[in-house]
Each structure stands twice: as C-alpha cells, then as structure tokens.
Amino acid sequence: MQTDSSFTFVLFGGTGDLSMRKILPALFEAHRAGGMLADSGKIVAVARHAADRSEYLQWVNEHVKPHVSKNGVDEAAWASFLKRIEFVKIDLGNPDDFALLRDAIQDLPGIRVFYLATGPSLFVPICHALASVGLNANARIVLEKPLGYDLKSSNAINDAVGEIFAEEQIYRIDHYLGKEPVQNLLALRFGNALFEPLWRREWVESIQITIAEELGVEARGDFYDNTGALRDMVQNHLLQLLSIVAMEPPHSMDSDSVRDEKLRVLRALKPVDPRDIGKVAVRGQYHSGVIRGTSVPAYATEPGVRPDSTTETFVALKVEIENWRWAGVPFFLRTGKRLADRVAEIVVNFRAVPHSALGASALRAGANRLVIRLQPNETIRLYCLAKQPGEGMNLASVHLDLAFDQFFREGQMEAYQRLLLDVINGRLALFVRRDEQEAAWRWVEPILNEWKASNKPPKPYASGTWGPAASSAMLAQHGTCWLEEEN
Ligand code: BG6
User: Fold this and answer.
1) What's domain 177-412+434-476's architecture?
2) Most buried one in 20, 21, 375, 376, CB count within 10 A?
3) Which listed residue (237, 251, 287, 355) is catalytic?
4) How far apart are CA 347 and CA 152, in angstroms?
5) Measured in angstroms, how far is the CA atom of residue 341 from the centroid of ligand 1?
C-alpha cells in the first residue's frame, strides 16, 4: 500500500499505557514497513510528564521500544522513526495551553488527526479546547473506548463531540474490528459462494462467540471495578463480532454499506425481558486458582478492586436476533478474565441431516460445525462426517483445517496498525458509527439495570476454569455445550 497522504498525528496521552503498548508501536511498524506512511508525516505527542522533546524521546526509547517488533528492532528504522516525533507539553486541564499546540502544528503538512488516548472524562474538554484555537476544522478525531458508561453518558459525549466535529470526522475505535481474522470473516462470508446459502436458520442450529482471556485485570483494577465485563467486552467487541457474523451481505464494502448492515442486526436484537434474565444471562467473578501452573489471586484482592466488589469478570449470554434469517437461532456469547485459555472464536453449529440413511453412528457422530478461530492463531476448521475405515458404515467426525499462517507467511498486520492507517487515509468502515454504538448500549442497558436492581452477587468461578457452571447449564437447556478444545 503506497501512500502520499501527508499527516500530522497528534497523540493526546502520549505517555499513557495505550500509547506505549499499542499506538506508537503500531505507527513504528507502519513506518518500518515502508510506503505506508508519507515521509513528511509527523507524530506530535502531547503530554505533561516530560519536560521537552529530548526527555520524551528518552521515554519512548525506554518504554515503547520494548513493545515493538517481536523479532528484534530494526535500529536504522527506529532512528528514522524517532525523527518523525515532535513533542508539546500541555496541561490538558488548561485550555490556554492549546495555543501552544496550534503554534507547534500550524506549519506541519497534511491531514490532522487528533488521537485521544486519554480517559473519557477528557474527551469533551479536549474537543472544546481544540475548537477554541480553530483546530477542529478539516481534522479527524479518534476516540478510544470506553465511550461512556451507559447510553446516557455515551450520548452526552457524542452530543458534545458532535457539536465540534461532524460524524464523518469521528473515528470511534473498537480494536477488534482491526484484527485480520475479523476482516477474514467478511472474506469468508462474502467472498465464497459455499457458506452464504447455509448461513441461516434453516441450516444453522446455534452460534457461539467466545472471547476468553487468561489475564486478570492487571494494573487496571480501578477502571475495571467500575466497568465490568458487560461494558468492557460485550457492549463493543462481542456485539460487533455478532453483527458481522449475522449481517446481511452489504451492497459494497464502503463504510456506510457495512455499517448500515451491522446496525440492522444490532437493532434486531431481541430485548432482554428483566423477568428472563436468569435464563439468558450469567455473570461471574473469578476467585483464586491456578493458570498454567501458577497460582493467581481472587479478583476481589486485586489492587484497585473493592474487597466486597460485585463487578462481573465473566458474562455468558443467550441472544436472539428477530429477523427472517435468524429467528429461533440462539447466539451464545461469553467472555471472561482468568479463564482456562486465551482464545477468541466463533463456532457455527449446523443442523444434523434431515434424515440419516447411514444409521445410528451418523447421528452419534454429530453434525457439521465451522470453527473460526481469531486468537491466539488464525484458523478455520470445518468438521464433517466421514466413514471410519474398515467393515461396516461407522461414521466419525473429522475436520478440514485452514491455518492462515501457512498460506500467508508475510504481511500480517496488527489491529492498531490497520486502524491507524485507516484514520490517516480517511477510511471509516472499521470504525463504529454513533447509531451502532447507541443500539449496542440500548440492548445491554436492561441487563445492567437488572443486575444492579437485583443486587445479587456474581457467581464465583475458580481462575483457570471456564467460568461458573451456570454458563454451561444455560447451553445444556438448549441441548448444546460450549466448544472447548485444546489450543
Ligand atoms: C480491551 C479490554 O478492549 O480488550 C480489555 O478493555 C481486554 O479488558 C482487551 O483485555 C482484549 O483485547 P485482545 O485484543 O487482547 O483480545
């Protein structure tokens, strides 16, 4: 991908965790690859924890360099990358400081991107301060999640930002949309004739989407304890994946065609009736346990977490989509921290054949199943039935495997790299539009409200397991179970 679009990439929160682990490493990778970033493009870091550019570059050397390139740093590329970086010391609480930013960037070329890698409470003040010095015109603004705490607070942020930036200037990041395998899901569904005819209620019995993590809350106890898994993972990543799995074929891959179709799915989600919450939603919280041979502590003893916290670190849901394609097909979603494995995958369970001429072993061997694994390795596995060798007609489940790294050895791109390049190049398709975000909040809110009102604690689960037993019981009621395979 060659580009000549010049840019000034202003990074608020320039010494924050996200800048250190994701944003600056992603920009470095794009720089190192060559041809992806215009030579004249500049990165302007904004922070207050560094005195000047040389102190900031020292911080970048110490803290960012360890996060780039797993296979060792290309020193020449690193040195030329540092030349792109400028620094402006600003106290974000002081709007007058923004004149310093304006002066620093006014002669820099290209499109201006303002990346807000800060807490959400700063989004609106930063936008106002940018507007006060005229920096909002023709610029793009990138907002990180969490964008609000519920529908009302997310609307408040969107309304305020929307007074300063038009919707097509706003890039709301959901990093799952930048992952290669999620892109591949679109390719699988809409680039092949094979699956689409079967991708509907007549042939699909149920669908599972899992995002399981081995990590706990790490150093984010304060944030997480006021957030929980439903807001942190379901409202955004899981509902985005669900909408891509379930959407109708878009007319084209332009940003609004794709987002319109995703929105239709989000709007068709069957609202959760508070009286049914126990049947369709399970919330859990991790206790101590063992992960890969190491003892790990209970959530309630993590730094920053209240000892009597009722915040959920695990959620399992049964979701229904009220449209012709999916009526009656349960979608089971789950996510959790400190689970048995780190895996993100989509499992499509097809119906059994309508009549088995092949006898009882065919029924026992199960039905077709497509497993699209997004993490830790990108694979697609299609389970089929085959005859076992030897006498008689005994069937067994076998699988066809597609491991992407065997086909494509090069060119893999991290989610942030793809998304940042999209911002610089003005491609909005992989960013969440306001109406999608609102529809997602609208759907999760009754669950949040009901959990809060009922005041019941989440169900405990031992770290290193697959969550509370109630999660498996929910699926058992539908005659199915979570697919839990070894990596
Ligand atoms: C983030 C959540 O959005 O996604 C984290 O805030 C979570 O809690 C992370 O750990 C998971 O992302 P990934 O790409 O590691 O699966």
Assistant:
1) 2-Layer Sandwich (3.30)
2) 20
3) 237
4) 34
5) 14
- 308 C-alpha to ligand 1 centroid (Å): 24
Residue closest via CA to ligand 1's atom 15 equals 213
Which amino acid, residue 336? G
Phi, psi (rounded to 5 degrees) for 93: -80, -5
**Does pTM surpass 0.90?**
yes
Distance 202 CA to ligand 1 centre (A): 34
| Per-residue pLDDT, 56 | 97
Phi, psi (deg, nearest 5) at residue 155:
-65, -40
CA torsion sign, 10 to 16 to 20 to 26?
negative
Expressed in percent and rounded to 5, the helix, strand and coil fractions of the chain are 40, 20, 35
Per the listing, tokens 């229904």 go with 320
Ligand 1 proximity of 450 Cβ (cutoff 6 Å): no
Does residue 282 sit in helix, strand or coil? strand
| Tokens linked to 310 | 């009722």
174 lines ligand 1 (CB under 6 A): no
Whether 411 shows a pLDDT value over 80: the answer reads no
Ligand 1 contact, 225 CB (< 6 A): no
Distance 83 CA to ligand 1 centre (A): 31
Report pLDDT digits (tens) over 25-70. Answer: 999 999 999 889 999 999 999 998 888 999 999 999 999 999 997 6
From CA 118, how far away is CA 121, in angstroms rounded?
8
Residues 199, 200, 202, 206, CA torsion sign: positive
Residues of CATH 3.30.360.10 domain(s) within the chain? Answer: 177-412+434-476
- Residue 28, Cβ neighbours under 10 Å: how many? 26
Fold adopted by 7-144: Rossmann fold (3.40.50)
What string of DSSP letters covers 6-26? -EEEEEETTTSHHIIIIIHHH
